[in-house]
Amino acid sequence: MTSPNSKANYEKILIAEDSLTQAAQLIYILEGRGYNVLHAVNGTQALEMARQHKPMLIISDILMPEMDGYQLCQSLKEDENLKEIPLILLTALSDPKDVIKGLQCGADNFITKPYDERYLLSRIQFILANRAIRHHEKMGVGIDIYFAGEKYRINSERQQILDLLLSTYETAVLKNCELIQARNELQKLNSRLEDKVKERTAALTEEIAERIRAEKALRESEQKYREFFEYDLTGDAIASADGRIMDCNPAFLQIFGFGSKEESLNTTMIKLYPTPQSCEQFMQQLQKKKQILGVEKEMRRVDGKTIFTIENNIGLFNDKGEMIAVRSYIFDNTERKMLEEQYRQSQKMEAVGRLAGGIAHDFNNLAMAIKGYCDFALKEIPTENPAYQDIEEVKKAADRTASLTHQLLAFSRKQILQPQIVNLNELIAGIGKMLQRLIEENIELVILPDPDLDFIKADRVQVEQIIMNLSVNARDAMPKGGKLSIETANVFLDQSYAQTHYEVQAGPYVMIAVSDNGCGMDKETQSHIFEPFFTTKEQGKGTGLGLATVYGIVKQSKGHIWVYSELGKGTVFKIYFPRIGETEEIEVSEKIIPDTLQGTETILVAEDEEIVRSMVCRSLREYGYTILEAENGMKALEICEQNKDKIRLVLTDVIMPEMNGRELSDLIQTAYPQIKVIFMSGYTENAIVHQGMLDEGIIFLQKPFMPMNLLQKIRAALDAFNPTL
Fold first, then answer.
1. Comparing C-alpha atoms, which of 117, 116, 111, 122 is closest to residue 147?
2. 512 near 488, Cβ under 8 Å?
3. Percent of the chain scoring above 70 in pLDDT
4. ∠391-396-397 over CA atoms, to 5°?
5. DSSP secondary-structure letter at 659?
């Protein structure tokens, strides 16, 4: 018998096996012994490879697609160029009829699973040796062969001994000496032979029964593994060391977007990595570490889309320490990754919003004071005086500051909304001409309204502001012209959409989409567009508050906004407002326009900002009112107690130290119901509003306001109130 280190070990052996797991095991065993192994997944492929490579031996499974092992064997024996190639049938079947059928087809040996590695190798060595003997006999010479460590010269007479050895069922390595001795003594010990046969038959019967039990246990184990493999939600796959996918389960196909298992088997893992280099680096790490568990990775679907995974990867190694295969267990983490990113973005926007609201509060007070004192100065200076124009410019600057603070309040969701039932189609039609003037002549405006559009409940002016800001943004993205489309539709955001979009609740919505075919944005730009003061425009050409304002209005209106954009392919903003079934308009109280702004009543002004308090008090005194001042809520309450019979109205800021305006109002109106209260603020928090809506019965002045607005509001409140004395 040839040794493992002889030249026979470099001969080609062809494996025909459709189970990639079984094939990998055979390849591991044979390559470890130095054989050159070829692999076919069915009989048809095996026959073609046999014709091409002329292997020294073929090992074939019986049950295979397209052409089974019996058909392969018969086809080989009928082919003049291939019939001399020995064939071993390998199967988990245990019916003796299957063995007979295999031998009738011309099989040289029949091995059942599970098999012992040593037994398999001994069969292969015997069959290759037998082939060599037959070749030498045709040449008329003998050959030396080794059985159980002893050298024998094999010729035609010795061939009979070898045939007997090859036809027996037990392991040749352990039984060679016994069989040779039995053969030599056959003529002398004819009577004992029958007993030996019976004895061996009984032993073989028990061995076959044991093998049947082992095969049954193996099949049950394989069935359980296959069921787990097929129904596991984790994507499971086994790949060769060069990245070729050898087997995978349905979850793996779904995660990476394969249309079928056959498609995946024609793919390498390299195509599922962002770059070939990243795949190569990972395989090198796995070769070194043997296994990499719980690693988070960025991967690619076959359609090119990016996904994020959490993986366990385990390397399979031969006895030389070479990695021959990789087992991967992959969890699709894309949805959770997206939600985490949306959550982080939301938290960042909330933090910036709080900062913006605080800044707006301070800006409002300063802007109001500047505008008020400008008005005082303009009354005293003749129009022809050069200082008059300077003060006018200061007032205009204060107006621009007020506009910026208004946008900051919109972003921080601290402005006061006046919601009503709105039909978006009618609203868009009403501002259509204004939109056309906003955009360039080389931009086509297309409006696509849904004729059955439902109603929403929102602040009409703020919704108009959203459409105007998005239209201006689209215009700037199309400097060479293009198309601006505004579309409305009734939509239903289902649970699957809500699960992948942070803060979205499933339900019916009215959508408005504003899209352009301009320059588009990359992912990095998209992650910042709603932040205050972020802009991609040249310096001096934008405040960076347009989209921040849109974001704040939408969120305060309980809506959602999402942007979809690619460089060079344009941008679409989709806004979703909750849909309502009402159609009647909200009743709005008629505004009371007083006949005169003059008054003689006593008014208490509670304001912690001295510059604002002084300006307001001066404005009221100029129109005849008696003014009492308080720098905080506690001081105001003390003044009310001392002047309860004189004070007719309290004008209070909402946000003050020690006691806020709402707390002051509640105490005053409980103790002194004859005193009316008007609130003023540029930053409301939740003292007098809920979700941006004024509490019922509240009279409110939004900072910054003009003195005329203040006087009108106070005179109207005093004239409408009849105290019970």
1. 122
2. yes
3. 70
4. 95
5. S
Q: Classify strands 482-493 and 443-448 as parallel, antiparallel or unpaired.
A: parallel
Q: Which of 479, 489, 555 is nearest to 516 (CA)?
A: 479
- How many other C-beta atoms lie within 10 A of the C-beta of residue 658? 11
Q: Element (H or E) spanning 513, and its range?
A: strand 507-516
Rounded Cα distance between 65 and 62, Å, is: 10
CA gap 204, 416 in Å, rounded: 93
Tokens, residue 8: 């026979």
Amino acid identity, position 409: L
- Lowest-confidence segment of 354-363, 456-465, 625-634, 693-702 by average pLDDT: 354-363
Q: Where are the alpha helices (DSSP H) in 381-459?
A: 386-412, 424-430, 432-438
Residue 156, pLDDT > 70, answer: no
- To 5 degrees, how large is the angle CA 580–CA 583–CA 587? 110
The pLDDT of residue 53? 92
Phi, psi of 151 (to 5 degrees): -90, 135
Cα–Cα distance between 90 and 88 in angstroms, integer?
A: 6
Q: Is 290 left (phi over 0), alpha (psi -120 to 50) or beta?
A: left
- Find residue 40's DSSP bridge partners: 16
- Helix axis angle for 117-138 and 20-32, nearest 10°, is 60
CA distance 75 to 79: 6
Confidence band, pLDDT 50/70/90 cuts, at residue 306:
confident
Q: How far apart are CA 500 and CA 88, in angstroms?
A: 55
**Amino acid at position 256, single letter:** F
pLDDT tens string 473-531: 888 888 888 888 899 989 888 876 666 665 678 889 998 989 888 888 887 777 777 77
Helix H or strand E segment including 166: helix 156-167
Mean pLDDT of 633-645: 90
715 Cβ partners below 8 Å, 6+ apart?
594, 596, 597, 599
Is residue 286 predicted with pLDDT exceeding 80? yes
Residues 277 and 482: their CA atoms lie apart, in Å, by 40
Question: CA-to-CA distance for 271 and 275, rounded, in angstroms?
Answer: 8
